Amino acid sequence: MFNFLEFEIKNFMSKKVLCNIALCVLLLFCGCVKTNKEYLELKHGRIENLRIMKVDEQNHINILKYDLSQQYDKEKEKELQYWYIQIDYTDALENAYAKNDDLEILKKRIQRNKYVLYGLNKNYLSPFTDSFVPNKKSLKSDIAMDEFNLKNNELDVVDQQKPTFCFYLKNIQCKSVFTAIILLLILLINADIWSKEFSSTKPYQYIFSYPLKRKCILLIRNMFYCIISLLLVVSFTTVLCFVGYIQYGYGGHLFILTNGSFLEIIQVLLKSFLIFMLSLLMYVQFIQLVSLVLKDEIITWFTVIVILLVSCFVITGWNPFSYILSFNIDFYYEKTFILFFINLLIPFISCAFIENMDFE
Q1: Lowest mean pLDDT among 33-42, 50-59, 149-158, 328-337
Q2: DSSP, residue by residue, 209-255
Q3: DSSP state at residue 358
Q4: Is the overall model pTM greater than 0.90, yes or no?
Q5: What angle do CA 272, 275, 279 make, to 5 degrees?
Q6: Residue 271: closest CA among 205, 221, 327
Q7: pLDDT at 91
């Protein structure tokens, strides 16, 4: 039994498999770099917007100073003082964003938004003269939310797009490019292992020399590669989330704001993870069955390419089967039942088929 497992481990550690793993690491690294670049562009965009606001505020100051130099007006004097304070608040908020200080951003944003609301009530801001004129209702809502988060020390909510631990975890849980990359890796590894073995009788002449029934050997190999596939998914997900944690921290608000308590978050993640794993196992076992039936490496690879295309459609939501395989928890029990049934049916068909195959 140990010799058999040793043979399988050596088979798994082939150059092609290791190259596929290296390719997945490279693609995930590129995905992380791209995500971080998009976040930095978003951050710089916010700073640029604040600079545009400062230009508007300075224009107000210049116009009011000129008007007051021509003729003194008490109301215009009050308005000028308002814009002096407003531009100071905007400058302070810009500096907080530049320093990436979440606590200061939250405090300065509350101060500025309150003062903007005061200016709106006084009719100091106008859509004809200012680039950004917020809605009073949405502004009040933003202030209330920021004050609540400041009171409860929920600093992560300052930046929803920051690639934190939970940001990557949520991307794996949902349809994303990271899910597609990991799924691609698992399918390529299994296609490489199974297609070349069934296209040649030599591996199975050796494997079936063990004193075990064919179907037992097939099920052991099936379970071995399914477990390896699951371990690879967990490993890559852990590394991806760890990178996010090292860069920007935990970011638990991405789940808390959506799903409530911590226990509810864990429940949602586990359900979503189970659907993802069952879908993955179904793909892996289907590749094994196709390789067993076709016994041709080229045709098997063609079939795998078709599966990959279908997988892309599933992940992007264009496929009619996305109802079953979309990894979210809508209709959770129905999806779980269907996937469990398929995962039990495929090995049963494989066992029935291999008992009658001739490997001489």
Answers
A1: 328-337
A2: TSSS-HHHHHHHHHHHHHHHHHHHHHHHHHHHHHHHHHHH---THHH
A3: -
A4: no
A5: 140
A6: 327
A7: 93
